[in-house]
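Methods — Computational structure assignment.
A single polypeptide chain was analysed. Its primary sequence is given first, followed by the predicted tertiary structure written as structure tokens.
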Amino acid sequence: MAGRRWRQVSLRPSTLRRRVERNSGYVSGVGEEGPLFCSAGMQAGLGDTVLGMGRESSDEHYVVDLCDEVLREKGMRQHRFDWLLGDAGKSGRQAKLPVDGFWPGANIVVEYRELQHVGPVPQFDKPDRLTVSGVHRGLQRVIYDARRDQLIPAHGIRLVVIAPSHLDANSRGRLLRNREGDLVTVRRIMMAIAD
């Protein structure tokens, strides 16, 4: 590609080669499992961990995976209950609100509340655009989180809220993915709600 500079990076010399496009800050390449992509910032400090693009590489997905292991059950990701609804749009339709993870056997919902859930983040809030609720996305997120906090326990389901501050995270709220330490913390959180 003309005009683009690529740098070869080796994370696992025997299996992986990565090219860092300096203009975009993304790492891409091909590994044993096919194409791999992640932002260079996400790659930093993760050692041999290779992240895919999308939800699978998110901190939320990592936390839900930890919960799977602790609860010894595969949770239902982005599950939507018929009774957990967003505000009505112009047509009167109400979307079902997703939860990060639901474990029917344990009767637990886990919500991972990243920094945009506790304070303003212009990138996520889009303060110049109104949602169906008539407010910007940041305020709508507060409203919907409060709705989850109220309705999930009202339907007899235990709600567990996990924040970056509960786990090993950097100052920007990105998880460092200290798996062993994070598993201990998630176990402690789950044991506390079991009492």
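Note: The two ends are 59 Å apart (CA to CA).
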